[in-house]
Amino acid sequence: MKKRLVSLLLVFAMILNIPSVTAWASIKDLLGNTAAQNSEILSRLSALTGGKGAEALALLKELGLLDENGNLNVDQSIELDGKTMTLSEAETLLDDPKTDLSRTATVDGTPITLKNLKTIVQIEQQLTEIKEKYFSGKAFSQEQLVQLQNLMSQIGTEGISAQLQDAGSLASLYLYVTEDSSSSPDTVTYGTQAKYIYHLSMSGSMPSDRTVSFSWKYMAGLLPAGFYSASLTLTNKKTNQSVTCPEGKSITLGKTSGDLQLDSGYDLSGTLTLTVGSNTKNLGDLLGCNVSGDLYSYVEFYNGDGVAFTTSSAADAAGLLDLDKITIQKPEPFDYAGSAWLTSMQGAKQYDKNMTNYSSLGYNEYTNPSWKLVNSDDTDMENNTVRLEDTAKEIYGSDNPEYQVDAAISIYGAGAAGYMKNALPIGSDGNYPNQLMTTLSYRWNGESVSLTNNTLQTEDGGTPYISIGTDSAPSAQSVSIVMQSPNGRVPLDLRTVWPGNPIFCQSLTDTSATLSIDYGSPEQRTESSSIKAYDVTPPTVESVEVPNGTYYSGEYVPITITFSEPVKASGIFYFNINGNIYKPSDLQMDTTGRKAVALYKVLDVDDAAIHISAIYEIYDLVGNMASSETENNNGTGWDFPGVTLKSALMKDAVTGIQVSSTSVAPEDAADGVTVTLQLKQAEADRTKYAAYDTSGGEKQKAPFAVRYTNTETGETKTVPAYLAESGNTLSAEAAITGLSAAASDTPYQVSVVAYEDSTDTTGIVVAKATSFTVKAVTFANGVTINYPDDNTAQLSLSGTYRPKLTVSFTGSPTYTTGSWNSSNDDIATIDATGQVAMTGKKIGKVTFTFTADDGGLTDPDSSNVKSCRSIEYTVAAGSSPALVVPDEANRIVIKKGGEAQVRWSSNAAFFPSGDFEYTIELFKGNYTEENLKNESPVYSVTAGKDENSAEIPSDELTELSDNGTPSYTVRISMPHPKISTETLSAVCYIVVKAAPAAVHLTQPAGGLYLLDTQTATVKWSVDNFVAGETDAKLDIERISTGSDGTDVTDPIHTEDLTNVSGSYTLTPAEVGDGGLKDTYMVSLKAKNEDDAGCSSDSFPLYVYNPDALKLNAGDEDVTGKTVTLDDESKVDGTEGALPTDTDDIMKLREELALIEYVGINYKDHSWSQLKDGIKWSTSDDSAVSVNYRQGGLFENIKNFSMSTYLPETKMALSSVTDGTATITATHANTGMSASVTVDVHTLRQKFYLFQLTPAQKTALTYTDGKGVEKTVETNNEGVLALYEPNGINSDVSLRAKDGSDNVWLGTIAQSSLLSGERDATRLQLYPLNTFKLRQAAKAEIFLKKPDGSAYTGTLTLRGGVYKNDGYCQNAELLGNEEPGLIHPLKDGKGDQTVSVGSDGKDLKFQSAIQLRYVSYENLLILWKPIVYYMQSAA
Question: What is the structure's pLDDT at 807?
Answer without folding.
Answer: 97
